[in-house]
Amino acid sequence: MPILSDSGGGGGYPLMMDNTMLLNGMRQLGSTESWTDDLPVCDRTGVGTQPNHVYSRNGSRQEGHHCEDRSFHFNVNSTTSFYGLFDGHQGQSAANFLAQHLPADVLLEPLPETSTDADVHNLFKQAFESVEGEYFQSIDVSLAEKTSLGFQIQGMSQTEAYETFPEIVDRLSTVSAKVSSGTTAVVALVHCNRLHVANVGDTKAILCKLDQSGGYSATQLSTDHDLNNDDELLRLQKLGLNVDYLRERQQIGNISVTRCFGNYLVKAGYSDMADLCMATDEPVIAVPAIKSVPIDNSVQFLILASGAVFRTLESATGSPQVNSDIVRMVGEEFKVQSTLTGVAQAVINKICRIHQDYFLTEMNNPALPQSSRQIDDLTLMVRNFNHPLVNGISSPNSRSPSLSTMQRRFDEQLHISVTDGPAGGGTNTDDEDFGIATSGHQIGYRSRSASKTLMQSTTPVPEMSVTTNDDLILPPTFDDSSANTTTTNTTTNTTTNSTDFEERGFNSQKADPLDLDSDGRVASYVKFDDFLDAIELAKQDGTYQDFTVTNGGSTITTGAD
Asked: Which residues are CB-neighbours of 361 under 8 A, at least 6 positions away?
């Protein structure tokens, strides 16, 4: 947390103390209550979720454990909003703690409008380090108990310890499970027309933009800290670890990522793990990768998602371009959903259906890995900037003259960037300037017939081409503070003549014109001729009687002129 100077001319110490006391007071709230509960949510955001489940042989699903994903989306003020997604493991405690306390460290001090990218990057690094320290302090009783129990069976083999002190071994197992709770994280800060993204682990941030050719580009702003990242393997190798062994197992200690919050067992307790004990320092760290990019009229939407969202789709389809597949799905749902929550949830639901169909097709295949027989917790957040929500309810002040045209442009051309370079004037920093390992995009395509059918069930779109954003020319700056903040209304300054798309085969669906009478009103579409003729006949043969109908405050008498 930055130390601010007292504007009254004194030093920074008194103000720092006041803020520290305030922050500590906020953190003494109950585990289910946080000062961030009073922050307004950002209603330009939608979140979709699906708890984990394991398939049975008949295709039914059963939840394996309580959902460990957490997220937030806060609208701090007219120039600042903050978003976070946490993918927990080994329990909920770490993700719960981070979701409540990280916003406190980042947002307690108002960010000046003059803040530079370097200022925000330093704030993120300090906040990540501070919150992890606070988390370990919050479980210090359990850590002390674990240490005490370990001393009582020190020097014994596992079998000998269990035969001699079974109660101690059982209790040690329970306490170890508690302190092993951890979480990956991705956060995004929108501040004064800049987007700042920080992450540890494999939670992802993907930004979709309108590029200079009139198509769309999608760039991953986060870094995958896993055992497919060559830079991470090099870091681990320098610590003395056998990276070939780790990469083959796709496991480091009790997790599959090389960076996370919490999880004491792979942090200070790493020396007790057989595959990590030779490391010269903690192998799993919580140092974030950070990137900043400008926000302008070309920015369409931002996706934050847990790593399981991408792994689940890749497992079922074998697609080598899962990032682009998910961006395409989000774009498709913008055409049919009326809210951003509907967009995000529809994408999650579709991924689950694709994976379930794949399992039902392959469940008798003995080579089907266990990871494909279950789904981890899935969470996907969509933050909209300028993309048209076609069926959204427009406000009286909105002006979206080209929604269908803009969506056809999305269908027509979507360029996917798999490079880790800054997207249009962005800056990227982390502890050693680690880049995204592109090996995740080089997985060979494997046929998944049932899953491919579902993937192709939406409106066909041409194949995506891989482009970079090095020469991207950006439109004028977009002022996020002036945006309409309803989930069902977006505005864009980009317009395109629909005839351009009609010539390319994207014909507009035009409604038939309404029939108007001589007064310019809609002509009657309910005819009363037979009814009126029957009344006239009844009058002529003397069988007609007047009657009165009262409806609310109105009275209608038949036979009256």
From this structure: 448, 449, 450
Task: Give the closest residue to 71 by CA, choosing from 52, 96, 93.
Answer: 96
CA distance 469 to 172: 52
Q: Which tokens go with 195?
A: 């987007």
Q: Output the six-digit token pair for 405.
A: 């045209």
Q: Assess whether pLDDT exceeds 80 at residue 48.
A: yes
d(CA 559, CA 546): 6
123 SS3 class: helix
557 bridge partner residues: 548
> Is there a contact between 95 and 88 (Cβ–Cβ < 8 Å)?
yes
Q: Where does the pLDDT of residue 530 fall: very low under 50, low under 70, confident under 90, or very high at 90 and above? A: confident
pLDDT digits over 294-344, tens only? 999 999 999 999 999 999 999 999 999 999 999 999 999 999 999 999 999
Read off the pLDDT of each residue in 379-383 and give the average, rounded to a whole number.
98
**Which ranges of 268-321 does DSSP label H, i.e. alpha helix?**
307-317
- Write the CB contacts of 497 (distance below 8 Å, at least 6 apart in sequence): 405
CA distance 325 to 322: 5
Is the pLDDT at 142 greater than 70, yes or no?
Answer: yes
Asked which of 43-52, 82-91, 547-556 is least confident by mean pLDDT, the reply is 547-556
Q: How far is CA 45 from CA 72, 75, 208, in A?
A: 10, 10, 15
End-to-end distance of the chain based on CA atoms, in angstroms?
80
Half-sphere CA count of 81, side-chain side, radius 13 A: 23
pTM, two decimal places: 0.69
Q: DSSP string covering 426-452, please?
A: -EEE-SS-PPPPGGGG-PPP---HHHH
Lowest mean pLDDT among 148-162, 201-215, 226-240, 527-541: 527-541
In which region does residue 548 sit, left (phi positive, over 0), alpha (psi from -120 to 50) or beta (all else)? Answer: beta
Distance of alpha carbon 238 from alpha carbon 281, whole angstroms: 10
**Secondary structure (3-state) at 85:** strand
Give the chain's mean pLDDT: 75
Helix/strand/coil percent split, the chain, to 5: 35, 20, 45
Question: Which domains, from first to last, does the chain contain?
Answer: 44-138+181-482 (3.60.40.10)
Cα 495 → chain centroid: 28
| Cβ-based neighbour number of residue 168 at 10 Å | 16
Residue 136, H or E segment: helix 117-138
